[in-house]
Amino acid sequence: MTISQGIHHVTAITGELDRHLDFYTRILGLRLVKRTVNFDDPASHHLYYGDATGRPGSIMTFFVWPGGRAGRVGTGVAGAVAFAVPATSIGFWYERLISQGLRVDAPARRFGEPVLEFPDPDGMRIELIGVAGLEAAPAWDGGPVPAEHAVRGLHGVTIWESGDDGHAATLERVFGLRPDGEEENRLRFRGPAEMGAVVDLRRVGGFWTGTTGTGVVHHVAFRAADGAAQAALREAALAAALHPTGVLDRSYFRSVYFRQLHGVLFEIATDDPGFLIDESAEALGTELRLPPWLEPSRVAIEAKLPPLHAWQAPGVA
Questions:
Q1: Tell me, what's the pLDDT at 316?
Q2: What is the predicted pLDDT for the residue at 278?
């Protein structure tokens, strides 16, 4: 059985571009590693954040829908996105977030790890999870957050379920994640990667159904090392009657999609070729990049895209 290492990236939707950019680059200190467009809707931005080079497991992406309708967290969606920081940095982050005027929940513990939870500008629930021993993990040293405290990558996501909606079977049988504990109404599954390894299923029976829109996760992508691994994971999804799509070229990875019945849209994304195919490591995220088939329409596309007023050079506090 082919096993996914864990989460490749998580994609959500934002509606307010300037506040969004300020929050993720200045407050959270993530690197904007790619500025491109939604390949299925080239009139809208698609922004990618991550570590120094946007390695799989560190990537959070956003479709930008200015003036878009707000989504609603509920069953059948990923209700929170968690980032991993060193456990010794939780105090630093609590003080930093409070000083920026964020509404931060009281520090808590989950599966033995410290957790800070707060909303992003669109109301999406963000969590910082303190992970013991993460101090030695690579950190981007070019941002406004000191490298020793910087976000190292994704910790995972929390999917809300009304009961047993089948996500557990998919995580085990398609992606090969293993059960890793139960706490209150949460079931935890884990992959072998250092970053992006965790998926929590939060059982909230009787809650309303989630809806797509700003402030809500659009899909969760799992890693496939290469095309062969992706094909094997796609076959597993077919065997589970999940009706995966064919392979789609997303320039920086290749994608297959399928939707869990009554649940989340999942993606199988390849680790290759990565974000360095059209920009150097130093220049990542500094210019709008388009795939070859959209390049002839660059002038028209740029004219329709909202300007990135709030974006600042890395390292500006």
A1: 40
A2: 96
Cα atoms found within 13 Å of the Cα of residue 203, Cβ hemisphere only: 12
Copy the structure tokens of residue 223: 């890693």
Predicted structure pTM score:
0.96
Q: How far is CA 247 from the centre of its chain?
A: 20
Structure tokens at 127: 């969590």
* Model confidence band, residue 305 (pLDDT cutoffs 50, 70, 90): very high
Structure confidence at residue 313 as a pLDDT band (50, 70, 90): very low
DSSP track, 222-260? EEESSHHHHHHHHHHHHHTT------EE-SSSEEEEEE-
Q: Which amino acid is at 56?
A: P
Looking at domain 7-304, does it have CATH number 3.10.180.10? Answer: yes
Beta bridge partners of 160: 202
pLDDT computed for residue 309 by the predictor = 61
pLDDT at 196: 98
Cα separation of 74 and 55, whole Å?
30
- Structure tokens belonging to residue 75: 């069953």
d(CA 253, CA 273): 6
Domain boundaries, the chain: 7-304
CA distances from 60 to 156, 207, 276, 302 (A): 11, 27, 17, 23
Contact by Cβ (8 Å): 217, 156:
no
Q: Where are the beta strands (DSSP E) in the chain?
A: 7-14, 31-38, 41-50, 59-64, 78-86, 108-110, 113-119, 125-131, 153-161, 178-183, 186-190, 198-203, 217-224, 248-249, 254-259, 265-270
CB atoms within 10 A of CB 210: 21
Kind of pairing between the strands at 265-270 and 217-224: parallel
